[in-house]
Design goal:
With about 290 residues, this protein is α+β, with helices and mostly antiparallel strands. The chain has helices at about 20-25, 40-55, 65-80, 130-135, 135-145, 210-220, 275-280; strands at about 60, 85-90, 110-120, 155, 160-165, 170-175, 185, 195-200, 205, 210, 225, 235-240, 245, 255-260, 265. Helix content is about 25%, strand content about 20%. The protein starts with 18 loop residues before the first helix and ends in a 10-residue tail after the last helix. It binds fe (ii) ion.
Length: about 290
């Protein structure tokens, strides 16, 4: 992280300067000082985000993207959205199949529907704003601080490093706990109706779930359910392994566009070929020979 540019003017025109300059120019640096993380202000910002994330499992940075950056990133995502691969599946809250040996009202037998498209990394312009932001070393350093790791690494997955989730009418992501301890997403465009990010903390401690409370939420109960105020331009770090969460069903013409930025605590980490097949319908990047 020592090569990071410092003191980049936030008003640097897009397309000018180094990749770090172009990344910094996407962000509202007055509110989110990612360009000066070593300063007292930057360190206090990381500490504040870290505390919030530790206490609530949520670090939501409102108005993270500047309006012009939001516009450009949304246009970029919308232009590749027709190339999304759609995955339609049923799963339990634990992301597996139903266990028929369990009692009928057990959460391990309850199936949720997921219908979501994803545009793989290799379909995104490498010099575009989304990849530029993802590759910004300052973002990596900031996220390591928020999550509480000595350092983070970019995901080495040629399809899943940075992808764009596309929800069209009927799209949804049923209630589940993530396998990864944290996820990083951006809201670019909300749906006309639905597509709400809902979560329910406190149903899982370590690997142990409150089965009774979980069954109630899966049956439609609203106790403890929170709707995230996730609006265009917002940046979200979410501890999805510990909190049940979902995206409600989308209706209307407008696509819900949510980039997913993937990181790991170890270098050269990647999805398995099976997971790539599931999310992007292929395991190899475009143009790769089998
Ligand atoms: Fe999730």
């Amino acid at each position: 992280m020592r090569d990071r540019d410092r003191g980049t003017p936030p008003q640097a025109p897009h397309g000018a300067g180094s990749a770090s300059d172009r990344a910094a120019a996407l962000i509202d640096l007055a509110r989110h000082p990612l360009d000066r993380l070593d300063s007292a202000e930057g360190q206090a910002f990381i500490a504040r985000c870290r505390r919030t994330f530790q206490d609530s499992g949520v670090c939501l940075l409102k108005g993270f993207l500047l309006p012009e950056a939001l516009q450009k990133m949304t246009a970029e995502a919308a232009s590749v959205a027709p190339e999304a691969f759609y995955c339609h599946k049923q799963h339990t809250a634990f992301l597996g199949p139903a266990d028929e040996s369990l009692p009928a009202d057990h959460p391990g037998r309850h199936l949720e529907d997921t219908y979501v498209g994803s545009v793989a990394s290799d379909l995104l312009p490498p010099e575009g704003p989304l990849v530029t932001l993802y590759r910004w070393p300052a973002l990596l350093e900031f996220l390591a601080g928020v999550i509480g790791l000595p350092r983070l690494y970019h995901f080495a997955d040629p399809l899943g490093a940075v992808s764009v989730n596309v929800f069209q009418a009927g799209g949804q992501h049923g209630w589940h706990f993530d396998e990864a301890s944290f996820s990083v997403t951006l809201m670019l465009q909300t749906a006309e109706t639905g597509g709400l990010y809902e979560y329910c903390p406190g149903l899982r401690q370590g690997d142990v779930e409150d089965t009774e409370a979980l069954a109630k939420v899966l049956a439609g109960g609203r106790q403890g359910v929170i709707t995230m105020d996730f609006q265009p331009g917002d940046f979200l770090v979410f501890a999805g392994r510990d909190a049940l969460h979902r995206v409600t069903t989308v209706a209307g013409e407008r696509l819900r566009l949510v980039p997913v930025l993937s990181f790991s605590d170890r270098p050269d980490d990647s999805n398995s070929p099976e997971v790539r097949e599931l999310f992007w319908g292929r395991s190899e990047p475009r143009g790769a020979t089998a």
